[in-house]
Write a structure and sequence with these properties.
With 118 residues, this protein is mainly α. The chain has helices at 6-39, 46-82, 97-102, 110-117. It binds zinc ion.
Length: 118
């Protein structure tokens, strides 16, 4: 079985660090906009207030997604430090590199990911 080269691993580390920073930024920004919705509630009309609440719900959903992804990114960085990055958590096979290029925080191979979503 083919293993990841040091060059590939350091490339994934760079991507993971970048994704982590983007997620940190995204989480800060959506937390601020959540506060704005609460503060402006008395000033806006019924319709726009509903819009604002809907937006807040959406940003809450996004935030949960971002937090989940952030956790996966942290775990992937930890796995990189421990030298076991790129192996499927479930079946122990090497995860497809094209999958890692799209989502460097993946901890499951395609087959196990699909099985876990059913
Ligand atoms: Zn697997």
């Amino acid at each position: 079985m083919e293993e990841l080269t040091d060059k590939q691993l350091s490339g994934f580390r760079q991507s993971l660090i970048q994704v982590r920073e983007e997620l940190h930024l995204a989480l800060d920004i959506s937390e601020e906009s959540g506060e704005t919705v609460t503060l402006d509630q008395s000033k806006v009309g019924r319709l726009s207030r509903m819009d604002a609440l809907q937006q807040q719900e959406m940003s809450n959903a996004c935030r949960t997604g971002y937090r989940k992804r952030l956790l996966a990114v942290e775990q992937a960085l930890l796995a990189l430090d421990q030298g076991d990055y790129g192996w499927c958590e479930s079946c122990g096979e090497l995860i497809d590199i094209r999958r890692l290029e799209v989502r460097p925080e993946s901890s499951l191979c395609v087959a196990c990911q699909e099985a876990s979503e059913i």
